[in-house]
């Protein structure tokens, strides 16, 4: 001790003698410009140091040639030579690769080093930078193993989150937990992406702490909290952007249309439709329906804390109009957030989380046959938008197709959602080993909708007409034998309420024995209730045929057609869980857990399920024998466990419902009888997934470069089906159906790789690169007996199906004929397997079963012709910060998936895509089928309609500039940043449709494109201010 | 108490309120939902469930088709040999375990039985006036469905008084036909005991229906004494008599007459879809029997199913009023009605079923092939008379005089001379008479089988095999209980 003092004294003397002492002061801030209190500032090589105050300020007397070190947990340390400066402001970068970074796992936290499971994490700032309308948009490509596809590019449109493939043909939604509160995956639009602090995705069996809810993975979302001992900090973020369609489909113009349609009828000995085909460009219906539309978002956040409490309070406004329909397809969201934590006593903390959202959405028919875009693609270019009277034209002679602008003008609906999500939690640090948590989480949502169905006439023989003629006379409808009344315009209003709550209580234990044996335990219980109710009413005769007056309060109360309906339902889950962890010197780690779930959704014989998980890790780099200078960290992980999926199962499905048809005539009048509809099944239970995962984490280059590699095999059995059952059960009468049973198996396996590189090249230049890769192999390995396959999405109009679920193939694979080009001449037809109605110029189908005949009646010549599941998806993130400028870019690629082109209306007068210009016109001319009205089989579902859906997309690029402190210091702002950015700037793809990033509402409909509402290309300008 | 301690107690309470909650928490009933488990609370519920059990009677058209097509009376017909292929196989006696129509018979009747058993399962929930009437009809319906099953398949699993869960099927064996018959008899006796001879509500089961079906069931078991007794009771005590005019009897306007013992009711507004023939509710027989691509008077275009053979037509005495009432000779009809056009379907014989046929003014909606307002006349008084005659003639101590009397009542209506035979000749005369009287009504094949004439009369019929139809192979597999297939299939 004495010696140290002596040396210090000596150094000080030396310093004094050599260099002048000076005072250095400054402010330490984080990358957002917020001051960081409590940073250690030390003169290098000495004990001379200080700590920053609540405003991040420090002051220290040091020699003018000293080097200062700045250290703070969770941030990269910095060394800065004083070089005689009196003011040194420091921006500290958060240490993303830190091994002791906190990772949220179920009912507790862990660190990257201690994890035994496959968990992927992303921090809020990466999400914020992408400026996305919905949280899921930001998750795409961020994590290996997590695939996000869009249900629609329309404002407020839904997204699908799929973790490690499709495990069922029903519900593949992961469990989403926001600050400990269970959140509906489909309702994620309510969350403001800027409120996110971090997202952790539990991909493997270690998600099993959530038992029967965990089979599709768990996403843990943590919202922003304040920090203790921090002065109030205000930040404002805003951007304004302009959106346009990212793509247009190349269709025939009027001249090309006329030429092809003439050829079509002439080939069948008809009279040409157009005497003069020189019709010019005609109407480009896509130009007519697409428009540029604004998007804007503004956030205001205050956060800070005292020595006992911390808070984070925010509000935001988001508004997006549609690139189709503008205001008719729009989404507006207001968010409010209050996160508040306070120490009630020394060891008792109270936490309140409150998230509020108000959403307003309008939609147009989209992604269906008959959507606005479907009509825009298929309407004829020879029609004007308006006729000479200024009325919308009729798409005359094109069955099912209507003027898309008339459709937009006559579509009226709105949905308004109010949603409160919150948590009240108490955390008690009982002693240094035990802590107890009790929390109450809730979700309350109220959804009101209004839909106006005006009297409208789209033209002769249009099925969409609600009026009988152009004068809007109503159609008549029969309400009793011989009694006809007019069917007038109508309004439907509904109100639905969703209330969930969860009550969790758990005790955590942690103790280290003899410095090397660490034992952790978690024991807890949880109850979860999900209930909803709704009422719906439709009333007729809205005054003035007007949206403005379309309210139930104004309808004709006595109209015989008025209807109403309602529902209410609840599901409850009661769970107990226990987890034990042991690690030896942070080198050998083991974890075991068991969850017991009881659910009101399951039949009496299977009401309770048990879900065990085991996992372990070996930190090889901590072994004595391991002394590689190459690896800084090397860990091998493995996990195995069983979890369940209760989301595919509707409430009370296990019970028999009285939905059968039971009417029988007595006295020649039908009497209303009752019969069982879908039979019950007391054995009904969850879909069950067992998953094995092995992973390797390693860091190189002093932690700057980190890798995580995982391989998994995930097998889901006991899928829900309604296969044929024995007649004895009595489910084959009118309106009856066999019970749901658990049967069938789907297997997913895949490889996941993520690479992160982060480097402070100099004090003014930072570089970060992240890359991830995901592969999924999906195969259906068992179907229930009595059910050979399940059919999914329909192809074109009619009863043809494009997709199937069948043993030996990926779920939802495309099932149809294979083609071999087109028949070039009659001889080729004669020499080929017998193909009904074939003429030269028609598609030539392959005789798959080799019986010499193409089977159009049955399925024997159909086979797999594609799958919507990509072979590989990749994400690439680049971030560069240099001298106040920052650049970030995010690329996403999906490779090896196919898409079914299903937005062409296969009828004579519909418009066609421009590729049809290359039609077959004679021997050797083309391999594109001829155009003709002659009987042909070219429109059956074949690989001719299947396209490669691979794409590479620059999802986001942003260039920003942060004003230097010397300017901002005088303005009162801590930090000022401006940026310009673009989303979906370019997409490289061969796909002909609007957007290759096409999701669906279910695995059996995936990849079937009905004229997908594309995700817009957005240019934006934004600002981030901290003060 | 210090605030600190209060808070800790509060925390403890939240922690352990959850911990001590038990599995009762998840035992919840659906709110505002009528389901199978909480029904049968009011008398009306029983009545509605009974209506639902009646409802499945409406699939009986299949029984008519197979009962005719399997016999020497008619051919499968239709558009082509693959049009309802199962019927063509039955026609050719080449049917086996894979036959969609036979599977439909199996499914249809068990669905009806499940609907009846659902009522019996809840029989004791509630006591109320009139419940005996409801239960009596339920007894009848169950007997009817089982009588169809046992007639087609012989030994069939007997399930009574409860619904069956999917997991229970693998332990269910086929019950010997004698036991199934015993259950049918017990059900019918229970029904007959309560029901009245007449019911003001058209379509409701009566005592006469129950006793007549019982008579038929006895006859199928060669229980002639019992058959004679119950059938004579119907004749003596029942309100029935023959409809005088056989030539107009099959028109819609003459439905529900003094001869009606048991009709399955149709009103022509309920149909179904081609996707689910087993859930049809519109009486498909008339539409499907209709003349293919027909245009002309009286009739309407149909699908030329179940076309009568020349053998049947020629077996009639030309003077028999029933010949043209039962079988339409389209060639003759077209000659008599200039302008008539029609097409020929598969196995065109030139004859059509003239009892159940699509006629103008008698069509249903929305699809008049699938829907007809005609009733299926399951038991007519003429059948009661001829069954009684046969039972009296074949019982241990025959009463041929009464048997002849009944037989001649039926013959007289058709303008046929009296029969004076007795003994075996009388037996044969009665059997002959049944073919003529019930041509096209689906009884012929089963009459031939039960009287041992099938092998002689039906081409391709193998004795010891074709008396019963095979249990659908898919049902054997789905049950998974190791049922043995019927002999020689």
Report on the architecture of this protein.
The complex is a heterodimer of chains A (1027) and B (489). Chain A starts with a helix and ends with a strand. Mean pLDDT of chain A is 90; it is low at 9-17. Chain A is mainly β and 1027 residues long. In chain A, 7% of the residues lie in helices and 47% in strands. Chain A is globular, with a radius of gyration of 32 Å. Among the domains of chain A are: 2-92, Immunoglobulin-like, CATH 2.60.40; 102-224, TonB-dependent receptor, plug domain (Ferric Hydroxamate Uptake Protein, Chain A, domain 1), CATH 2.170.130.10; 779-866 and 900-948, no CATH class. Chain B has 489 residues and is mostly helical. Helix content of chain B is 46%, strand content 6%. Chain B is built from 19 helices and 8 strands. In chain B, the strands form 4 sheets. In chain B, strands 1-5 form a two-stranded antiparallel ribbon. In chain B, strands 2-8 form a two-stranded antiparallel ribbon. In chain B, helix 8 (207-220) packs antiparallel against helix 9 (224-237), helix 14 packs antiparallel against helix 15 and helix 15 (400-413) packs parallel to helix 16. Chain B is globular. At the A-B interface, strand 23, strand 26, strand 27, strand 28 and strand 32 of A face helix 1, helix 2, helix 5 and helix 19 of B.
């Amino acid at each position: 001790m004495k010696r140290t003092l002596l040396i210090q004294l000596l150094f000080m003397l030396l310093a004094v003698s050599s260099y002048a002492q000076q005072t250095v002061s400054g402010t330490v801030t984080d990358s957002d410009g917020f001051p960081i209190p409590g940073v250690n500032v030390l003169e290098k090589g000495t004990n001379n140091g200080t700590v920053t105050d609540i405003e991040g300020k420090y002051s220290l007397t040091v020699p003018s040639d000293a080097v200062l070190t700045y250290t703070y947990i969770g941030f990269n340390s910095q060394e800065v030579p004083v070089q005689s400066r009196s003011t040194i402001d420091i921006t500290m970068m958060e240490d993303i690769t830190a091994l002791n970074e906190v990772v949220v796992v179920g009912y507790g936290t862990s660190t990257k080093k201690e994890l035994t499971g496959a968990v992927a994490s992303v921090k809020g700032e990466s999400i914020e930078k992408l400026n996305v309308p919905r949280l899921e948009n930001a998750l795409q490509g961020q994590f290996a193993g997590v695939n996000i596809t869009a249900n629609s590019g329309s404002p407020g449109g839904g997204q699908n989150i799929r973790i490690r493939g499709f495990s069922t043909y029903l519900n593949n939604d992961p469990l989403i937990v926001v600050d400990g509160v269970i959140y509906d995956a489909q309702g994620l639009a309510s969350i403001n992406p800027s409120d996110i602090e971090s997202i952790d995705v539990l991909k493997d069996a270690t998600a099993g702490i959530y038992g029967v809810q965990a089979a599709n993975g768990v996403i843990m979302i943590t919202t922003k909290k304040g920090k203790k001992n921090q002065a109030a900090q205000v930040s404002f973020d805003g951007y304004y952007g302009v959106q346009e369609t990212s793509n247009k489909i190349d269709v025939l113009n009027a001249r090309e249309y006329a030429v092809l349609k003439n050829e079509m009828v002439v080939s069948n000995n008809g009279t040409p439709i157009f005497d003069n085909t020189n019709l010019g460009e005609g109407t480009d219906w896509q130009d007519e329906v697409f428009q540029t539309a604004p998007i804007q978002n503004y956030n205001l956040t205050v956060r800070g804390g005292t020595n006992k409490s911390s808070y984070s309070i925010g509000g935001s406004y988001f508004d997006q109009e549609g690139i189709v329909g503008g205001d008719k397809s729009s989404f507006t969201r207001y968010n409010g957030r209050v996160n508040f934590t306070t120490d009630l006593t020394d060891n008792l903390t109270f936490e309140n989380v409150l998230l509020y959202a108000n959403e307003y959405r309008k939609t147009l028919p989209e992604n269906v046959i008959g959507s606005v875009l479907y009509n825009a693609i298929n309407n004829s270019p020879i029609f004007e938008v308006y006729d000479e009277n200024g009325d919308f034209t009729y798409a005359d002679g094109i069955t099912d197709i209507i003027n898309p602008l008339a459709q937009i003008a006559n579509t009226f609906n709105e949905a308004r959602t109010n949603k409160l999500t919150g948590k009240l939690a108490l955390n008690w640090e009982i002693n240094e080993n035990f802590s107890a948590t009790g929390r109450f989480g809730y979700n309350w949502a109220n959804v009101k909708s209004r839909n106006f169905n005006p009297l409208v006439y789209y033209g002769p023989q249009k099925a969409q007409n609600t009026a009988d003629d152009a004068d809007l006379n109503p159609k008549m409808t029969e309400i009793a034998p011989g009694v006809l009344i007019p069917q007038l315009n109508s309004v439907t209003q509904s109100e639905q309420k969703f209330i969930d709550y969860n009550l969790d209580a758990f005790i955590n234990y942690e103790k280290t024995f003899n410095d090397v044996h660490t034992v952790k335990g978690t024991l807890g219980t949880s109850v979860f209730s999900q209930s909803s109710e709704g009422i719906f009413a439709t009333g007729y005769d809205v005054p003035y045929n007007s949206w403005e007056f379309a309210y139930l309060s104004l309808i004709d109360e006595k109209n015989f057609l008025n209807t109403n309906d309602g529902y209410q339902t609840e599901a409850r889950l009661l769970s107990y869980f226990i987890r034990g962890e042991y690690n030896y010197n942070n080198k050998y780690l083991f974890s075991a857990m068991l969850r017991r779930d009881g659910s009101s959704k399951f039949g009496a014989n299977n009401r309770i399920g048990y879900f065990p998980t085991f996992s372990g890790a070996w930190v090889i780099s901590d072994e004595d024998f391991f002394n590689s200078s190459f690896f800084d960290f090397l860990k091998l992980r493995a996990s195995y466990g069983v979890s369940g999926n209760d989301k595919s199962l509707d409430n009370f499905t296990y019970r028999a419902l009285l939905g059968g048809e039971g009417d029988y005539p007595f006295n020649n009048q039908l009497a209303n009888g009752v019969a069982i509809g879908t039979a019950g099944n007391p054995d009904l239970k969850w879909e069950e997934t067992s998953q094995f995962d092995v992973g390797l984490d390693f860091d190189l280059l002093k932690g700057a470069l980190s890798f995580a590699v995982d391989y998994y095999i995930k097998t889901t059995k006991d899928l829900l089906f309604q296969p044929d059952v024995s007649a004895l059960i009595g489910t084959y009468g009118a309106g009856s159906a066999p019970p749901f049973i658990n049967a069938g198996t789907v297997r997913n396996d895949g490889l996941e790789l993520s690479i992160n590189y982060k480097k402070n090249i100099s004090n003014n230049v930072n570089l970060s690169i992240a890359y991830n890769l995901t592969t999924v192999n999906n195969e259906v390995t068992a179907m229930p007996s009595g059910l050979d396959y399940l059919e999914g999405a329909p192809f074109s109009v009619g009863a043809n199906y494009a997709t199937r679920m069948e043993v030996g193939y990926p779920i939802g694979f495309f099932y149809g004929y294979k083609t071999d080009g087109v028949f070039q001449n009659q001889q080729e037809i004669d020499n080929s397997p017998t193909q009904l109605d074939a003429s030269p110029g028609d598609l030539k189908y392959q005789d798959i079963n080799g019986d010499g005949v193409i089977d159009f009646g049955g399925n024997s010549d159909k086979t797999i012709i594609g799958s919507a599941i990509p072979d590989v998806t990749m994400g690439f993130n680049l971030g560069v910060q240099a001298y106040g400028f920052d650049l970030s870019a995010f690329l996403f690629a999906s490779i090896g998936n196919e898409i079914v082109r299903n937005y062409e209306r296969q009828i004579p007068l519909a418009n066609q895509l421009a590729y049809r210009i290359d039609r077959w016109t004679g021997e050797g001319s083309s391999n594109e089928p001829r155009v003709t009205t002659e009987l042909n089989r070219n429109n059956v579902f074949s690989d001719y309609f299947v396209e490669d859906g691979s794409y590479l997309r620059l999802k986001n690029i942003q260039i920003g500039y942060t004003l230097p402190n010397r300017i901002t210091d005088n303005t009162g702002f801590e930090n000022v940043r401006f940026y310009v950015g673009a989303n979906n700037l370019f997409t490289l793809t061969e796909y002909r449709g609007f957007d290759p990033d096409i999701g669906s509402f279910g695995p059996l409909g995936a990849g079937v494109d009905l004229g997908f509402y594309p995700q817009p290309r957005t240019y934006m300008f934004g600002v981030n201010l901290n003060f | 108490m210090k605030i600190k301690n209060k808070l800790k107690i509060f925390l403890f309470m939240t922690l352990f309120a959850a911990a001590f909650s038990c599995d009762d928490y998840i035992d919840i009933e659906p709110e505002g939902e009528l389901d199978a488990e909480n029904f049968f609370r009011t008398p009306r519920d029983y009545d509605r469930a009974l209506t639902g059990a009646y409802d499945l009677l409406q699939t009986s058209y299949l029984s008519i088709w197979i009962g005719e097509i399997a016999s020497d009376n008619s051919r499968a017909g239709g558009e082509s040999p693959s049009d309802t292929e199962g019927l063509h196989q039955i026609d050719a006696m080449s049917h086996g375990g894979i036959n969609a129509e036979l599977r439909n018979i199996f499914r249809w009747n068990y669905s009806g039985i499940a609907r009846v058993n659902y009522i019996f399962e809840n029989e004791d929930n509630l006591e109320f006036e009139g419940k005996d009437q409801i239960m009596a009809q339920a007894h009848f319906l169950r007997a009817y469905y089982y009588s169809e099953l046992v007639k087609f398949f012989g030994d069939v699993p007997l399930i009574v008084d409860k619904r069956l869960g999917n997991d229970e099927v693998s332990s269910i064996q086929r019950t010997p036909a004698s036991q199934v018959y015993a259950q049918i008899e017990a059900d019918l006796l229970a029904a007959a005991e309560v029901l009245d001879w007449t019911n003001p509500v058209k379509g409701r089961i009566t005592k006469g229906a129950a006793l007549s079906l019982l008579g038929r069931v006895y006859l199928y078991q060669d229980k002639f004494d019992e058959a004679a007794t119950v059938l004579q009771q119907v004749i003596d005590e029942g309100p029935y008599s023959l409809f005088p005019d056989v030539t107009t009897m099959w028109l819609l306007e003459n439905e529900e007459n003094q001869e009606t013992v048991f009709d399955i009711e149709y009103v022509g507004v309920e149909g179904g879809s081609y996707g689910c023939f087993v859930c049809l509710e519109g009486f498909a027989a008339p539409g499907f029997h209709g003349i293919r691509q027909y245009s002309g008077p009286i009739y309407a275009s149909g699908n030329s199913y179940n076309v009568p053979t020349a053998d049947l037509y020629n077996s009639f005495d030309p003077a028999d009023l029933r010949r043209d009432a039962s079988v339409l000779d389209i060639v003759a009809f077209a000659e008599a009605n200039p302008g008539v056009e029609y097409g020929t379907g598969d196995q065109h014989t030139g004859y059509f079923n003239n009892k159940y046929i699509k006629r103008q003014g008698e069509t249903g909606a929305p699809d008049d092939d699938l829907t007809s307002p005609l009733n299926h006349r399951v038991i007519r008084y003429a059948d009661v008379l001829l069954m009684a005659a046969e039972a009296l003639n074949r019982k241990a101590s025959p009463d041929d005089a009464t048997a002849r009397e009944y037989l001649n009542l039926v013959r007289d209506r058709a303008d046929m001379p009296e029969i004076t035979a007795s003994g075996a000749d009388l037996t044969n005369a009665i059997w002959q008479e049944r073919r003529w009287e019930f041509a096209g009504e689906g009884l012929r094949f089963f009459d031939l089988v039960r009287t041992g004439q099938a092998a002689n009369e039906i081409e391709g019929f193998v004795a010891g095999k074709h008396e019963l139809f095979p249990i659908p192979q898919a049902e054997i597999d789905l049950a998974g209980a190791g049922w043995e297939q019927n002999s020689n299939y």
